[in-house]
Amino acid sequence: MTATIQAYQFALDPTPEQEDMLRSHCGAQRYAWNWGLARVKANLGQREAEKSYGIAGDDLTPALSWSAYSLRKAWNEVKGEIAPWWAENSKEAYAAGLANLAVALGNWNDSRSGKRKGPRIRFPRFKGKRAGLSCRFTTGAFGLAGPGRRHVQLPRIGVIRTFESTRKLARHARRGTARIRSATVSYRRGRWRVSFSVEITRQDLPAARPGAVVGIDLGIKCLAVLSTGEVVPNPRRLEAAQRELRRLQRQAARRDGPDKRTRAVPSARWRKTRARITRLHARVASARSDGLHKLSTRLASAYGTIVIEDLNVSGMLKNRTLARHVADLGMGELRRQVSYKTAWHSGRVVVANRWYPSSKTCSGCGAVKAKLRLSERMFRCDQCGLALDRDLNAALNLAALVSSRSWRATVNEPDGNPCKTSAALAAGTATGRPAGSTPCREATAHDTLLRVS
Ligand SMILES: [Zn+2]
Fold first, then answer.
1. For the whole model, what pTM was predicted?
2. Are residues 198 and 219 in the same domain?
């Protein structure tokens, strides 16, 4: 039994009145965010100005607290004055906006002081009318509704019909293995959705073959090649839809769109085409996500150990010729899904070191080639004459990493200097495994628990 937090998302089919209320709640969340941000900014600016006049620390205007609690308290004191219409929306909408602001300010502060790793976080900005619509509810009456498994309930807005059945979550709720913690409504790609954050007690069976190892080589030509020899074809839905997309984009270009210089209002025909493009993008995205989920579920429930490459996806996205394909395939997404799903089935994911030459190594004799062009689809070994599909060879090497003794001996060592390692590889080091470099590592908690959806 494992307890996890999972998101259950359902597309909503609101009535026009309900849609108005959804929009109003999202606007309320934005209003509270902007109000709180203006307050904090004014306070920071005041203190900054006073410091520049040479006012001593004790005489400065006191700093405002950024906690969600104090922001909410301050809001409640003034809301009757500045927003006499506040009662039209659930108080949760304002509380959520202020809570988000408190998190954003905290992230900025931690990033500034070095407490938070990763890229620098910018100071929060005001949300304009074009900001994404969303609103979160953490208290009040929300959850599944009705006997037909086709409705959800939200505070104040009431019971809204869903497009899909809610049975998966309903079954958990009936068994008492689900606790809904919050509900977030959002408007994305032309559709309203609700996302429930749910604490789930899962009882998954262990992987069908707990001792089995499968290596996955993620490719450009096909989605994945498994070390079992199976070739998983690309979800080519994006490719197929792209022709239609190009046609629609040409159509939109011919129609009268908005113009910033002349302030021309877009024509109704332009809007219609734009709406079609949005829907097409949405269809492609959900088809792709479906394909990836089916593959990752199948692998995680079948194999005890999954070996996967550590791809530098953000680096690959900068390479413009590969970019579209990589983005299309959602490689990083597959790895994320495999990571958390193996955890459910008591399996494990092993991530190969980024510099491990899985493609250049012969899966038969272990010899490493100095060079292998991306255009060479067949792997031919100069030492033992082995010839097989390039991606299958790489997948076999990845699977072999787990059984080989060298990995067990070095698993706990640090990764070594990647630059040094890559230089050594480029120079054609005979073994391909420079000293101090670990060919792979067990996926860490960070890999597994990135995000569960
Ligand atoms: Zn060989």
1. 0.74
2. no
